[in-house]
Each structure stands twice: as C-alpha cells, then as structure tokens.
TrEMBL record:
<dbReference type="GO" id="GO:0015643">
    <property type="term" value="F:toxic substance binding"/>
</dbReference>
<dbReference type="GO" id="GO:0030153">
    <property type="term" value="P:bacteriocin immunity"/>
</dbReference>
<dbReference type="Pfam" id="PF09204">
    <property type="entry name" value="Colicin_immun"/>
</dbReference>
<feature type="domain" description="Colicin D immunity protein">
    <location>
        <begin position="1"/>
        <end position="85"/>
    </location>
</feature>
<protein>
    <recommendedName>
        <fullName>Colicin D immunity protein domain-containing protein</fullName>
    </recommendedName>
</protein>
<dbReference type="InterPro" id="IPR036471">
    <property type="entry name" value="Colicin_D_sf"/>
</dbReference>
<dbReference type="InterPro" id="IPR015287">
    <property type="entry name" value="Colicin_D_immunity_dom"/>
</dbReference>
Length: 90
C-alpha cells in the first residue's frame, strides 16, 4: 500500500533510517507499486504527497559537490517533514 511509502518518509524525517536507505527503499517501493497498479488507486491526498516526496527523493544526493537544487540529508529530512505535515501525515 502507498501508505507504506508515506510511513517510510516519516521514518526518514524522524531519523529512524538514513537518507540513503530512504532513497533506495522509496524508489524500490514506488516501482513495485507502480507496476502493480497500487499507485493508481491512491486517494488524491496520498498521491499528492507521494509526488512531492518523489521529487524530494530525486533531488537528494549524498555527494558533497551538489547543485543548488539538490538536497543533502539535513535538507531532505526537513523537506520530508514539511511535506508530510502539509498533507496531514505528521
């Protein structure tokens, strides 16, 4: 269920998992849910939140030589928390 992806983002925001683990697990889950059709069944709120989270995961990099639009671990956690709060999941 896509709520599992939301819960994964919560774990990352709360520092329960590393940003690298979040990135890997999020994209694995996204791919599996997309292939199975689960993503298409989400409520609008879950879908909207997941699209924001997808963008954040895409912009995350652990490499210290980042572009201005890329996020480090600290910024990723802060933006995940903001997105989750904006959509009522925190």
């Amino acid at each position: 269920m896509s709520i599992d992806l939301i819960n994964l983002a919560k774990s990352a925001a709360k520092k329960e998992i590393t940003a690298d683990d979040f990135e890997t697990k999020f994209f694995e889950g996204w791919r599996l849910e997309g292939e199975s059709g689960v993503l298409a069944k989400d409520s609008k709120n879950i879908a909207d939140c997941l699209y924001v989270i997808f963008d954040l995961a895409e912009r995350y990099t652990s490499h210290p030589d980042r572009e201005s639009y890329e996020l480090d671990e600290r910024a990723l956690r802060a933006e995940l928390e903001k997105a989750l709060k904006n959509h009522g999941f925190l």
